[in-house]
Design goal:
Elements lengths: L12 H22 L9 H24 L10 H34 L3 H30 L6 H6 L5
Helix pairs in contact: 1-3, 2-3, 2-4, 3-4
């Protein structure tokens, strides 16, 4: 009897790139058409995305040390790891979409000659940076949730260690 293959694959960089690019294109079109109707851009979005990114960085570090069974750490529940993987996959997509959208917004504001654009540019750049932090943190969390190969895995495949 053969062991079943895992059905959950790592997040594809191509998927994240396409999502970010689509968000950037849509944002570019919408911002050019509706910029005058939008409220002032605040730092609250950047703060929220940044805090989520920091929380995922901590979760990645904590999960990595617990899965490695470092001294002084408690074992991690398998269901918790599965939930963290789902969170990481969703957050990486959200991070890519927001990075694309805020990247396009920041470039549009930078190229614009409007006075309001100059006031909104710092908020857009902060949100872009926070989106990038969330994206990187989510990818690291996903990587941190991988179970290290055990002795039986190394015997089967010497290149696994």
């Amino acid at each position: 009897m053969t062991e079943p293959e895992p059905s959950l694959r790592p997040t594809s960089p191509a998927t994240l790139f396409v999502a970010g690019l689509a968000a950037a294109a849509l944002t570019w079109v919408l911002i050019g058409r509706f910029y005058g109707d939008l409220p002032k851009l605040t730092w609250l979005t950047a703060l929220t995305l940044g805090l989520l990114g920091l929380a995922e960085l901590y979760a990645a570090w904590n999960t990595r040390t617990r899965l490695a069974r470092r001294p002084g750490t408690e074992p991690v529940e398998p269901l918790t790891v599965a939930r963290l993987v789902v969170l990481a996959k969703a957050s990486s997509l959200v991070g890519a979409i927001f990075a694309g959208a805020y990247g396009a917004l920041a470039v549009w504001l930078w190229l614009s000659s409007l006075d309001a654009a100059g006031r909104d540019l710092p908020g857009a750049v902060l949100a872009l940076c926070a989106s990038a932090v969330l994206l990187v943190a989510a990818l690291w969390l996903e990587q941190s949730c991988r179970i290290p190969p055990g002795p039986k895995d190394i015997e089967k495949d010497p290149s696994a260690g």
